Amino acid sequence: MTEFTPITGLIGGILIGIASVIMLWGSGRITGISGIFGGLLTPARGDIAWRAAFIGGLIVGGLLWPLVSGNPLPVDLQVSWPVMLIAGLLVGFGTRLGSGCTSGHGVCGIGRLSPRSLVATLIFMLAAFFTTYISRHVLGA
Amino acid sequence: MAQEKQTSQLLIAFGSGILFAAGLIVSQMVNPAKVLNFLDIAGDWDATLAFVMGGAVLVTMPLFRLVLKRPHPLFAKSFYVPTRRDIDIKLVAGSAVFGIGWGIAGLCPGPAITAIASGLLPVFGFVAAMAAGAFVYKWLFEARH
User: What's the complex ipTM?
Assistant: First the structure.
């Protein structure tokens, strides 16, 4: 069980939104993380550095957190090693096939009222709700 | 005349990445326990993540409009924004597969990458598997030479 924390949720969401606006305003790019990450795996000339800088920022942000806040990174894993690998495969494959994830479709695409992103977000949310229901209440994990 | 300013673009990307990570951590989107308790409507539901996505869209919806009205970004020649509007089977199937993976472990790409900083080995495993999944997509769907 986790506590309902709407205020820090809202603040965190606003920070994510501001980060996305800074990226678009400064570099003209969308902060779609699966796309930025995917582009690093099959690099094209002149298209690597900004991706590496953004992904590096995501990790450095995580490394800075304990130093700045005095608290450890709140990462409480819920599934076993092999299940993590299966989930990672599905997330990696699905986000490339579907052209985006929670950030690209969910935050940026909905922000632009893109019909593709609205549909994608609806589908991955429903699939995630359904999967969690099955794993927690049917399989009883 | 707009120009590509590489160094400025790198600083923007790095700064945006750090701020994005801060948002993921403050909101606890980086925490799989929190994410799965949001996805588990039939359990002890924790609605927090609705506020995260709501907060983010509250910012992007008005400000993206303003930014995209400009002739070009501050440090680049043009905006690189997706233009497709068609709903195809790849979009639908891919989103469903992603949702299943997200619902299993409670990690999506951004939080998984930031969570690497926790040093937990299964997170590295998840990100490596994510990369493998992206390669599988490339083998199956992108043109081979």
Answer: 0.96
Q: Do B85 and A115 touch (CB under 8 A)?
A: yes
Residue A49 forms contact with B (CB below 8 Å)? yes
Contact residues, chain B, for A87 at CB < 8 Å:
101-102, 104-105, 107, 126, 129
* The one-letter amino acid at A19: A
Residue A37: what pLDDT? 96
CA neighbours closer than 13 Å in the CB half-sphere of residue A108: 29
**pLDDT per position as a tens digit, B36-80:** 999 999 999 999 999 999 999 999 999 999 999 999 999 999 999
Nearest to A12 among B11, B23, B122 (CB): B23
Quick one: which H or E segment has residue B13? helix B6-26
How many whole angstroms separate alpha carbon B61 and alpha carbon A19? 13
The single residue listed with the structure tokens 């539901």 is B45
B2 to chain A, any CB pair closer than 8 A? The answer is no
Contacts of A76 in chain B (CB under 8 A): 31-34
CA trace torsion A28, A65, B57, B4 (10° rounding): 0
Per-residue model confidence as pLDDT tens digits over A12-65:
999 999 999 999 999 999 999 999 999 999 888 888 999 999 999 999 999 999
